[in-house]
């Protein structure tokens, strides 16, 4: 099921420039070098094993959007080698630091959305659902990315969603409604710090917000020295230290469905690192595995495991970078959980990830194809790696016919009845794999449980235990304002 954005329209008087932002001092561990009380006697080999305890010069901040604790556990089952008796650890497991509280500050809803959560992670301020980089008074709040830029560092945003989507937007834009994506894109270009564009590397989807219908922002970026690229090869051949990579009109395809011309999340992250590390003052890079959330909203377990795999590869890539240095902090966490996924949905106490491994396409992809009028049996055969019962095929055909009927009667393509029926179609398409894998779901929305935090490198000690999502940026602000350089 797909969810419409529900945030009401509000206004902020005038455009908000980053030069008007107010900085705030935060009591943190960073001023003490991020050291635990007993870390003074740690020898060099132990420091390398545990992560350097000095303030970081570089920060790689990975966000698995919607990646609640059950997703991390399910991925461990999914990635495990079934030929060995012991369950293998994932790349994340050795770096678990603690858990993080993710509630918002909203009078009507106490479960966060990605906008409020992204703003908490980027500014250290709780706010209302739908808010991007503003507090409850709709006043702009300085972000850690903006502080990094002020400190002379290079900056980057990478996402598998539209680069104007809630999470990346929360680091470099200030609007009261996450749906103001044209304005978010304009702020990416127009707002400058010390005369420079605030984000050096922008990689993701959302080309529709940078074209002629929104002032030809892509051409303006190119005129200012950015490489503007649209596929994996162009990104690999990019020579400029600044790049705008737009690989889809809207969200990027899921990893399992993506054409070979598309870069994966780890590819985009590596390209960003290659460019950002040239700055001797260091960098801040936010990397979002956005479609963990988007597939979980639709209860698409195939898509979820596909995107978890992509996020795991990005984390491995970040760790490979950081473990060869003593100046880079890597943090991986989630903004919230989505879907209420359960590992097993029946009485047999058994979850079957092997069924998911056999899948050839996501539920989202098959839904899109059938909604366009493609033959149901052909799409299911090409997407599923096991036989689907004829009764389930008939149910999918029935929902597809209902969708066609709704479309024929609708006045326009924005009719909410279309989206509602398309959700029912996707539920029918995904029922065979949810049943076969024994995956359960409790909602099409977000859930409010604490999420896991994984970290390595200088300053990672501040994440130990149970922390609030606003604690993370408060420490990063202190790290960046200290103007730390590597030894």
From TrEMBL:
Coiled-coil positions are none
Listed Basic and acidic residues bias regions: 404-422
- Cite the entry's keywords alphabetically: Hydrolase, Magnesium, Metal-binding, Phosphoprotein, Zinc
Domain of life, per UniProt, equals Bacteria
The UniProt annotation puts the region (Disordered) at 28-51, 404-452
Entry annotated with the keyword Disulfide bond: no
UniProt cofactor(s): Zn(2+); Mg(2+)
Q: Where is the composition biased (Polar residues)?
A: 37-51
What is this protein's record name? Alkaline phosphatase
Organism of origin: Staphylococcus warneri
Q: Give the organism's phylogenetic lineage.
A: Bacteria, Bacillati, Bacillota, Bacilli, Bacillales
